[in-house]
Design brief:
434 residues, alpha/beta, TIM Barrel, eight-stranded mixed sheet, five-stranded parallel sheet, 14 helices, Metal-dep_hydrolase_composite, Amidohydro-rel, Metal_Hydrolase
Length: 434
């Protein structure tokens, strides 16, 4: 009887794995944990007289019309091409630009619906929290107001003794990794986050298991060099500082790693000391960039959280300039760069770290249109949800923002969010969240 019971459990486990993979294979677009409600019917609304910036990277279309049917984009084109159906609800976009809803690849939250709603009203319609456990988002189930779409990875995978123990799963071995990832997927996880104390020897298991479930893996690196992680198969790198030890002089990198192993908090200032000494003209920098391009790495630099200016400590300002320059070099080389706010920064206005990040991407060498694409379609690809989100195209979900002015010319216009549409419905930006 005991053997039969074990066999049944084993067969059920195999069946679960098969069905999970089959479901993911049939629906490769990963899902948010809180799909928003949309219109209850297929009513048509129209945004007219607007500058259309569709997120695909091309030039804006002036005097455009976008038709929304239910919760999806129906048609988009010039006013000469599209007729607005009789009875459509019309929004006049004169003097404004229409963009896809912004997507934040790196945001953290702890059961704070008020903060999430504020993010939504500032134009960010989709966020991913890389590394916080599912319980940090229980409040979503009690939300009375609209929330951005939230993608979760579950607690990050860290090595003993860990850093943030309330946010971490400390890995015991390869079987533990497989079990955790399976459990994360069943709870709605749409990615996996590696944290910096997880040894390189576990990366292969993490990556192979995540690939089985067709979910991406991202990592915050400090002790594992970026080139080693990339060669192990990692494609998603969070934080520009994750490249530090692979770019630095080997002796400086060894000193940094040893100090961080001894005291995790050393990295906070140690990053700046390390980056202040990096020679971006060194051959190793070119080699790391070539490797990143070859392996199709995606970088979410979160520059805003590391920003230091002249007036801060001189070595910190120099370090940040190197970080900024390296992002520009990465972009120029062909590395995909996406936008992540990491919630805040010393030089960001409260609640507007995302807009500051877009400014810094332009300061690093991107054009405004490239920064917009990094904030929309490129992030949708990073989330593996580009068939539903990230651009203004027929059939995609109607997550849209109206911006005063022309951010394709001046990225600062992204601070002037005037209206936000989530899943086909306008968001009440003045609504009070309890």
């Amino acid at each position: 009887m005991v053997k039969l019971s074990k066999n049944i459990v084993f067969l059920l486990s195999l069946s679960f794995l098969f069905l999970t993979k089959l479901a993911l294979a049939q629906n490769p677009s990963l899902l948010e944990v809180n799909p928003p409600e949309g219109p209850s019917d297929d009513r048509v609304s129209a945004i007219v007289n607007v500058r259309l910036i569709d997120g695909l990277g091309g030039p804006p279309l002036e005097n455009a019309v976008v038709l929304i049917k239910g919760n999806r984009i129906w048609e988009a084109g010039s006013e000469d091409q599209l007729a607005v159906p009789v009875g459509a609800e019309i929004t006049d976009g004169t003097g404004m630009s229409l963009l896809p809803g912004l997507m934040d690849s790196h945001l953290h939250n702890v059961n704070n619906n008020k903060a999430l709603h504020a993010i939504l009203t500032n134009g960010v319609t989709t966020v991913r929290d890389p590394g916080h456990p599912f319980r940090f988002y229980q409040s979503l189930h009690f939300a009375q107001t609209k929330m951005p779409r939230v993608y979760l990875t579950g607690a990050h995978l860290d090595g003993y003794p860990g850093v943030y123990l309330d946010q971490a799963s400390l890995i015991r071995g390869t079987d533990h990794i497989r079990t955790l990832i399976r459990d994360y997927v069943t709870q709605g996880g749409s990615g996996i986050k590696i944290y910096f104390r997880l040894p390189l020897k576990y990366y292969e298991t993490v990556l192979q298991t995540a690939d089985f479930y067709r979910i991406p893996v991202v990592a915050h690196l400090e002790l594992v060099d970026a080139d080693d992680a990339i060669m192990a198969g990692l494609q998603g790198i969070e934080h520009i500082t994750s490249f530090g030890t692979s770019l630095a002089d080997p002796e400086d990198a060894v000193e940094f790693r040893e100090a961080v192993r001894e005291n995790s908090s050393y990295r906070r200032d140690g990053r700046y000391r390390l980056w202040s000494k990096i020679d971006l003209s060194a051959d190793r920098v070119k080699e790391v960039l070539a490797l990143a391009v070859k392996n199709k790495v995606v970088l979410s630099p979160t520059l805003t959280t590391f920003e230091r200016q002249f007036g801060d400590e001189a070595y910190q300002a120099k370090a940040f300039q190197n970080m900024l320059d390296f992002v520009g070099m990465a972009h120029q080389a062909g590395v995909t760069v996406v936008t992540g706010s990491h919630n805040s920064g010393k030089y960001a206005q409260p609640g507007l770290a995302y807009q500051r990040e877009m400014e810094l991407l332009v300061a690093a060498g991107m054009t405004p249109l490239e920064a917009i694409s990094s904030s929309t379609l490129q992030n949708a690809r990073y989330f593996r949800t580009q068939d539903r989100l990230g651009s203004i195209e027929p059939g995609k979900l109607a997550d849209l923002i109206l911006v005063e002015g022309d951010p394709s010319v001046d990225i600062k216009a992204m601070y002037a969010i005037r209206k936000v549409m989530l899943n086909g419905e306008w968001v009440d930006r003045e609504e009070v969240v309890e």
